[in-house]
Design goal:
Shape: globular
Distance between the termini: 35 Å
Order of helices and strands: HHHHHHHHHHHHHHHHHHHEEHHHHE
Strand order of the largest sheet: 1-2-3
Oligomer: single chain
Largest sheet: 3 strands, antiparallel
Number of helices: 23
Structural class: mainly alpha
Strand content: under 5%
Helix content: 40-55%
Length: 553
């Protein structure tokens, strides 16, 4: 009352204050996540714009700069510096009139906005079941992972357009409503990156046949438009280079993370390499689409999109580093039946997508094939072999909890256990198993022992005993009352002699460690070696499946 009068406002109840604090914590956590995402975005932009001219946005300068390929009157693919489709060149043609400085700043901030939009769409597309507020913290986490990923950093540095096809596909699958609008966006993305056509079978076999037909028609319309505007360039791209093969850098360079590049790095060449590439590419495409269809029907559409994108990475003739973004959404897939195995796949994907291969594997000649193709191997694994759990699996939401061993006792020390004592009948069940070792350096008086026992978690199951004095848990007191003497009779019998009383006062336990257990495996004695093994440790409410250790008194 005094505080309320002096403060000038009514006092709030304790429950309301606790509820307000509980609601404020998630808000602060989300604010912190958004702050981290903003700092990463500012850092990436500062790194790009702080680089001298001629060393930043090199691909964009190659296209639309003063001496870029879009300015020449000949073919776009005479110098093989332009790796996009003819439709992409047709779209970029108007940018040649923009000023160099304004184009660099606008392209960088425009790419940054595309990354933010991509993170928001991914957070919205999380597989069910998730809470209604799950996208709120998931959005800044997705944006932060995108900012740290090598494809986004490479895109910002080179000035590439590889984020646009990924965003168009996600918009067509998750945001745009209608039977034809989503397919039109996917067809537009395929006109910029031809391997995106692999999403048309995904739409067809999941029941969206009109969207699949619209995607094919949209791709064909954009390609024919570019062919009519630039016939020579279109024939060079689609016929001579076989949809982009041989454009850009060397096909066997480490930046080409496709099956074609991996086979060339392994020493294959000529017709055998082409035949093997076509065979493996067809097998990966079929397996990837089948798995994607199965997970799309299961309700995990984001995982299905990522699997299809990973198959597109493998079957493309050239897949440069800025085109590897399809692998990152695969972190939403759940792998493993045990709770301890759930983080292996997401951590592996994040490491592959954020760290160079030289930092993950040692510089050994035997590991060169693995190190040079680590992203391709991860994409192939996601598309074909990783055992993602379906939502119908009982382990999808409730994995097998991790089993922990019982706390170890120091070697050579005496052990005292409850709830049973020497000579008494064992209790069939108990709520807490307590084991401790006596230490001559730290001792506690009887009164202090009682105060600690009242505050300890073991107080719910019974008071901890001292030497010469037994204390049983509440669960075992009823079962031992008829078989042995009670605690009071034991105390009165022990106070007959002063030596016993002295022993009681001087001997106590310095530390006690308790863990929950559903059953006692065998009778426990008050002294002697360590107790026999008990059943799996579990929380007092074993249905929760988690293990919580009580605070040590």
């Amino acid at each position: 009352m005094a505080n309320a009068e002096h403060s000038g406002r009514p006092a709030e109840p304790l429950g309301a204050t606790a509820a307000g604090t509980a609601r404020a914590r998630p808000r602060l956590a989300r604010l912190g996540l958004w702050l981290v995402a903003a700092l990463l975005a500012v850092r990436q932009v500062a790194v790009v714009l702080g680089t001298p001219r001629g060393e930043r946005l090199t691909d964009l300068e190659t296209w639309v700069g003063p001496d870029g390929v879009l300015h020449v009157n000949g073919s776009l693919y005479d110098s093989t510096r332009f790796t996009g489709t003819p439709f992409g060149g047709l779209v970029l043609k108007p940018l040649t009139r923009a000023a160099e400085q304004a184009l660099g700043w606008g392209w960088t901030f425009g790419t940054l906005l595309l990354v933010v939009a991509l993170g928001l769409v991914v957070a919205r597309a999380l597989p069910q079941p998730v809470s209604r507020r799950a996208p709120l913290p998931a959005a800044p986490v997705a944006i932060s992972l995108l900012m740290l990923s090598l494809p986004v950093r490479n895109t910002l540095w080179l000035g590439q357009t590889s984020i646009i096809p990924v965003l168009l596909v996600l918009l067509g699958c998750f945001v745009v409503r209608g039977r034809h609008a989503g397919g039109a966006l996917i067809g537009l993305a395929a006109a910029l990156q031809p391997t995106v056509l692999l999403f048309a079978p995904l739409l067809w076999f999941t029941g969206r046949r009109r969207a699949a037909a619209t995607a094919g028609a949209s791709f064909l319309a954009c390609t024919l438009l570019a062919w009519a505007a630039m016939p020579h360039d279109s024939s060079t791209y689609w016929v001579h280079h076989m949809a982009g093969a041989g454009l850009g850098g060397e096909a066997d360079a480490l930046g080409n993370q496709s099956l074609h590049g991996a086979l060339l790095r392994l020493g294959l060449s000529g017709p055998p390499e082409i035949a093997l590439f076509l065979t493996l590419g067809a097998a990966v495409a079929v397996l990837g689409v089948r798995r994607a269809v199965r997970f799309a029907r299961d309700g995990q559409l984001l995982l299905a999109v990522s699997i299809t994108g990973c198959a597109a990475i493998a079957v493309s003739p050239t897949t440069w580093q800025h085109q590897l973004l399809w692998l990152l959404p695969a972190v939403v897939g759940r792998v493993g039946r045990r709770a301890s195995d759930r983080y292996v796949w997401p951590v592996a994907v994040v490491l592959v997508m954020t760290l160079p291969a030289k930092m993950m594997l040692p510089d050994m000649a035997a590991l060169y094939p693995l190190r040079d193709n680590v992203v391709l191997l991860a994409a192939l694994a996601a598309a074909t072999v990783v055992p993602f759990l379906p939502r119908t699996s009982p382990y999808h939401r409730t994995p097998v909890p991790t089993e922990y061993a019982a706390p170890s006792r120091p070697a050579g020390s005496a052990s005292r256990c409850c709830p049973s004592r020497a000579g008494s009948s064992p209790a069939p069940t108990c709520s807490w198993n307590c084991c401790s070792s006596a230490s001559p350096t730290r001792r506690t008086s009887r009164s202090g022992w009682r105060r600690r026992a009242a505050r300890s978690p073991a107080a719910a199951g019974g008071r901890r005993p001292t030497a010469g004095r037994s204390s049983t848990s509440s669960a075992s007191s009823t079962s031992t009352s008829s078989a042995g003497p009670t605690t009071r009779s034991s105390r009165s019998a022990g106070s007959a002699t002063s030596s016993t009383s002295t022993t009681r006062r001087s001997t106590s336990w310095s530390r006690c460690r308790c863990w929950p257990s559903s059953t006692c495996a065998a009778p426990w004695t008050t002294a002697g070696p360590a107790p026999v093994s008990v059943s799996r440790p579990c929380s007092p409410s074993s249905a929760s499946g988690s293990t919580r250790w009580p605070r040590r008194a």
